[in-house]
Amino acid sequence: MTRPKRLGWEVSVDEIGYERDEYDAMNPLYVIWERADGSHGGSMRLLPTVGAIMVNDHFGHLTDGVRIESPLIWECTRFCLAPSEDRRADGRTAAALMLAGGEVMRGFGIKHYVGVFDARMVRIYRAIGSSPTLMGSEGQGRDKISVGLWEFTDDARAKVAARAGLSPAISELWFDRAFGSTQRQAKIA
Prior knowledge:
Elements: E1 29-34, E2 40-48, H1 54-58, E3 73-81, H2 87-108, E4 112-118, H3 120-128, E5 133-138, E6 145-150, H4 154-164, H5 168-179, H6 181-188
Parallel strand pairs: 3-4
Antiparallel strand pairs: 1-2, 2-3, 4-6, 5-6
């Protein structure tokens, strides 16, 4: 186990520097932002809640023991931005990840994401334009952690796209290139 410097959480890192856990063995979907030079700019992991997820396995006390299980709700974890000196670029990257995640919701017919986050993320989500509905919290100040539920309304999509400096048409193109436009048409039918 190592302790990442930025958040101080204990995680397993392999010999080549990859951070993996048992949920990576479940074939999750990763949304990845690649910088112009090809390096990692940010990423997040998505898993259907019909299988094992972190919220149910480790944070059920924050939902009063209510299990989150639905094919229409996926868990979002490992929301991560690569270190950068440019805070403005970081904000655009975070918004672009959320926009892409929203496109996954739209394309696969997902209604909500559920996730665990710390206190500093509340301000970031608000600035991006997509804040969760709180389901439960523990702790105080900077040590507060919460479970939240996100939906991706047309209004949130417009706000997040504007924050990312991208058009919603671009996020549709990303999805269609990754999964094919037939996936979206099948969901609509």
